[in-house]
Amino acid sequence: MTLSSRAISLAASSALRSRLLSLPPACRILSLEPAFTRGRRSRPAIYQPEGIRLYSSGNTSEALQKFKKSLQFPSATCSFEQLASQNQDLNDQRVVIHGYVGARRDASKNLTFAELHDMSLGSTVQLVSTPTKGVDGSDSPHNVLRELREHSPVAINGTIKARKAPSAGKGDSRPGLITNVEVKVDDITALNTFPDDIIMAKDTVFPPEQRHLQIRNDDSLRNALAFRSKAARIVRNELCDEHSFTEIETPLLFKSTPEGAREFLVPTRVPGLAYALPQSPQQYKQILMGSGIPRYVQIAKCFRDEDLRADRQPEFTQVDLEMAFASAEDVMRTVEAVVRRLWSELLAYDVPETFPRMSYEEAMSKYGSDKPDLRLGSEIRRVEYMVPVDLVSKIGPLTDPIVEVMKIPISEDANETRKFVGTFMDSPEAQPFIQNPHGQPGIFIFDSRKPLQGLQVFGFEAAEQVEEMLELEDGDLVVLQARPKEDFSGGSTPIGNLRLALHKAAVKHGYLRAPEGFAFTWINDFPLFSPSNDSEPGQGGAAGLAATHHPFTSPKTAEDMDLLLSEPLSVRADHYDLVVNGVELGGGSRRIHSAEMQELVMREVLKMSDERMKDFEHLIEVLRAGCPPHAGLALGFDRLIAVMLGKESVRDVIAFPKSGKGEDMLVKSPTKMTDGQMETYHLKLRA
C-alpha cells in the first residue's frame, strides 16, 4: 500500500503491520529509509490505519493555542500597491499587511532585516525589526521573526518608514521590489509555519506529486494562471457585451451518445444505469437553439477518454458558442473579433481584421497537415510526372505513387547540412519516417560543387526542373517522399510530419531561428465523412463511414447534397477550423437544423441501427419543433492560452493537469474502486 512518494510500503509484512497498530498513535514512526523525492529532505513517514498522516506528535494544547491565535489575525489595512505608490502621506502610519516571510538578514542581535512577499508573491517590501514587546504583551515580535522559516504566512502590524531609494545601478533591481519605504515591525502574527523538511529555492525542481509547490515556487506558472483568468474575462466581455451572447451552463451529467470519441461513464446506484460526462456541450447548445436562445456561450468543461499528448487532457476547457439564424461566415467573423481583442489586450499584438481561408485539400497538398504552421515555408510540390521511374523504386515499394518534394534551407554550407542530416537520421525522431511502410524519404543536399548540384539521381532534366521549381541554393535540403495515389484523409501526411520534425530539429541544433509571430488561417471544406477507423469508436454505423467531426455537421452546398447518398466520401462539410502556428485553436460548423435531414444522415448514410438512433431521439425531436438554422464553434481554451504564452504543453497553463497516463499525481487519482463501491454501483471486474 503506497501512502505517498515519501511513505513506506507496509504490505510486505503483516507482522510488522500488527505490531505498529498495537502501538499508541504517537509511536507509529517508521525508522526505515523513506523513498527519495526531489525538493525534500529525507524524513520518517508516519503510518495511520485511517490513511491520515500526522506531521507532528507535539503538545495538543499548544497546537490548539497556535491555531486559535491564527483565527484572530488582524485584517490588512494597506496593500503592497499602496506601499509602492510613492505616497508621502503613508510615512509613519501604522498599518497591517499580510504576506509570506522571505529571506532574513540578522545585522546584529538587536537588528534584523527581512523580506515580506505579498499574497500573490509578486511584490516585496523590507521589514525592519528591533527588540520590543508585542502590542498584546506577548513575546517579542523580534524573536518571533527571527525564528520563523522562510515562506511562512504572517500578518505584520508595523509602521511605514521612508527609505532612501538606492542609486541607479547600485540597488536591487528585482521586479516588484518596493524601495521607497520599509515597514518597522511592531507586532507579528504567525499564521502557519513552513516545515524544515521542504527545501524551496529558486532552482528547486518539484515533482508533479508536489504541484502546490511547483506553482508556489514558479512565477511562470502563477503568471500563466493569472493570464488565463484575464483571457476568460475578455472572452466573456467580448461575446456577452459586444455580441449579445447569453452565458448558459449545461449539465455535466449527460448520456452516452456515439459522437466520435470515447466517453467517461458515471455509474448510478440503479442497476445498469449510468451517466456519461459530455465530450462537449454540442447537443445541449443545439437544443438551446431550438429553445429560442439566439446566442449561447459557455466556458465549458469537457471530457474525452482518449490517448494523451502534449495538447490533450482527459478533461479540458473550451469556449463553446452557438448562433441561431447564422452562417459559417457569421461565426468566423465573431471568433475573429474575440481573437483580435485577446491578442491586442493581452499581448499588444496586432491581428489582421480577417484571417485567410484555405481548403483542407490545399492545406494537405501544400503543407501535409490540416493545421499547417504557415511561418515555416517549405511548401510541398508534386513531382511524380518528372521523377525517373528508377528513382521512385528506390524510395519505396509503391507502384505508380504520388511523389512529393520540398526544400528546407538548413545552411549555406552543404557540409553543415550533411552533418545535420546525419544527426537527425540517427535520432529517435527519425524512426517513424525510416520505418514508413510506403518508403523512406529520399534526402538530397544541393551542392554546386557536385555533379548536377548533388541531384544527379534525378537525371539532367528533372534536376534542372527541381532546382528551378524550388529555387535551390547551396546547402538546401531536398526531401522526396512517395505516398499512395489516394484521396487525403486524416490530419497529416508523412512528408508533412517530416517537414515539422526537420524544422524542429534544425531550430534545436541552431541551424534555423525559431519562428516568431502568429500566423492565423481558417481551414475549411473538410470531407464530411471519412472511412471508419478501428482505433476510434466513431458513430457505430454499419456503412464503413464515420462523420469526420460529428454527425450534426451540414453538407456545404447544394452540389454536396446531391452526392450525399451516391458518393458520401466526396461530400464537403460546412466545417471550419481556426489554426495558428500549426495548432488547431478550435473548430466549428453549420449544423443540420432539419429533423428529416439529420435522420437521413444517421440512418441512410452512416447506417446507424435503430438502437443507436434512439440515443439521438431527444435531438431529433428538438429539430422537428421548428429549430432555426444555426452554426457554432468551440475554441480549446487550454490550447489557446498555451499558444498565446508560447508554451509547448497545455499542462503549463492548467492549475492541476493530468499526467501522460491521465493521473493527478498530487491527489493520486484515479483510485481503485473498493468492494463496497463496486457493490453500491452494481459493478464487477472481468478477469
From TrEMBL:
Sorted UniProt keywords: Aminoacyl-tRNA synthetase, ATP-binding, Ligase, Nucleotide-binding, Protein biosynthesis
Keyword match Oxidoreductase: no
One of the entry's Gene Ontology molecular-function terms is: ATP binding
Record's protein name: Aminoacyl-transfer RNA synthetases class-II family profile domain-containing protein
Note the SUPFAM superfamilies from the entry. Class II aaRS and biotin synthetases, Nucleic acid-binding proteins
Q: Does the keyword Protein biosynthesis apply?
A: yes
What are the start and end residues of every segment in region (Disordered)?
533-552
Q: Which organism is it from?
A: Cladosporium halotolerans
Family indicated by similarity: Belongs to the class-II aminoacyl-tRNA synthetase family. Type 1 subfamily.
Name one process (GO BP) from the record. aspartyl-tRNA aminoacylation
Q: Where is the Aminoacyl-transfer RNA synthetases class-II family profile domain?
A: 225-670
Q: Name one GO cellular component term.
A: mitochondrion
